[in-house]
């Protein structure tokens, strides 16, 4: 078994790299944090991402690859192959002060890869909880971890060592510059793989964890909405696959893929088999050969954490999408030069609004940007999707979203966020 040299990258956007090695193939799974649909050069020439563009064009750009509206739920799905609403992680992201983590009774992808003889390394952002050691990456299948446990850290926010959140710092955020810095890091990784002579034996999967955050200049145009909304702008991922095993080049793949699929798909690419009870589907054969996706429906999210104000949920079946409840705060179509959000808007209070009991139906084949609500025109289709949504809703594990705990304080741990308080 060969071990892979760790490499280090960290910008606000490069957050989580899973890098495993063995034969066959090496697997590099890159999660670009908050990267929007329109935040890459291959869609938007004003964004400078030459390395990403080259990698994307050397394989398949995934045109209908979906993630959850915010990051912890997506990361949970990448790791477990299960929807977040099965783990109680459907309500927003884990706060640093919350005494919780991704449930320990779920097997993580790197644990399965280790059974196949892989060496496993994680670099960058975790955000799946850290209040006790058992929650942290090296207890959940990774041989090594070089990164941070919480939501963000980058050149601008190193004051986090004192436990401060960058939102207190009012630093300017230049999204385009950060994306280009991430691209440079990915260029460096590509170079390192080539120097090691293993580039051709490496499968590279690249995905965002949710749509671009509109209020921080992330951009999803022409898709509707953004991070933390159930619209496509929050959930339809910038993603591509390239390298070992992928047979198509310079190709746009429009088959449906969901975040929950990556765990069984990566496992299959590595020569393993996933548990048949997963929500995720093994899409490796479909991706490898660019054939039809094995998926026809998925859940965007189901979250009824605060039933007194109504929850939200959305499902896609075939070309149709039903949104039930409040879809999120930023509901428009925002061009890249859009400015003017109140930076004090708090995602947590805006995910769900009181008494929004409306349903919306879209045909994403005819109307991928969600301009025309068809719910009045097609009550029969609404009924069908709503009933399927109910089927999933019956499986929900109540959201595990505890109050902040004072014992998390970094001041008790030499100024750092550390495990040991739950
Ligand atoms: C994990 O435990 C929770 C709570 O007991 C349960 O609902 C869930 O089904 C379990 N999941 C697995 C994969 O064992
Ligand atoms: C954003 O950062 C890039 C790269 O650092 C720089 O070229 C550009 O001028 C910056 N844009 C703004 C609006 O500050
Ligand atoms: C990429 O590598 C160069 C050369 O080692 C280094 O100077 C640069 O900082 C690296 N870029 C990033 C974003 O890590
Ligand atoms: C990698 O693949 C490319 C394209 O097929 C080929 O030109 C190159 O020689 C290969 N490199 C190695 C080290 O096998
Ligand atoms: C990719 O998605 C866009 C937006 O929905 C659509 O215009 C385009 O036709 C799709 N491409 C393919 C190959 O499906």
TrEMBL record:
The Sulfatase N-terminal domain covers 25-157, 177-271
**Is Metal-binding found in the keyword set?**
yes
- Which domain of life does the UniProt lineage start with? Eukaryota
Descriptive protein name:
Sulfatase N-terminal domain-containing protein
Which InterPro entries does UniProt cross-reference here? Alkaline_phosphatase_core_sf, ARSB, Sulfatase_CS, Sulfatase_N
Q: Which UniProt keywords apply?
A: Calcium, Glycoprotein, Hydrolase, Metal-binding, Signal
From the UniProt record, which GO molecular function terms apply? metal ion binding; sulfuric ester hydrolase activity
Necessary cofactors: Ca(2+)
The entry sums up its family as follows: Belongs to the sulfatase family.
Where in the sequence is the signal peptide annotated? 1-22
Q: Enumerate the Pfam families for this protein.
A: Sulfatase (PF00884)
Q: What is the lineage of its organism?
A: Eukaryota, Metazoa, Spiralia, Lophotrochozoa, Mollusca
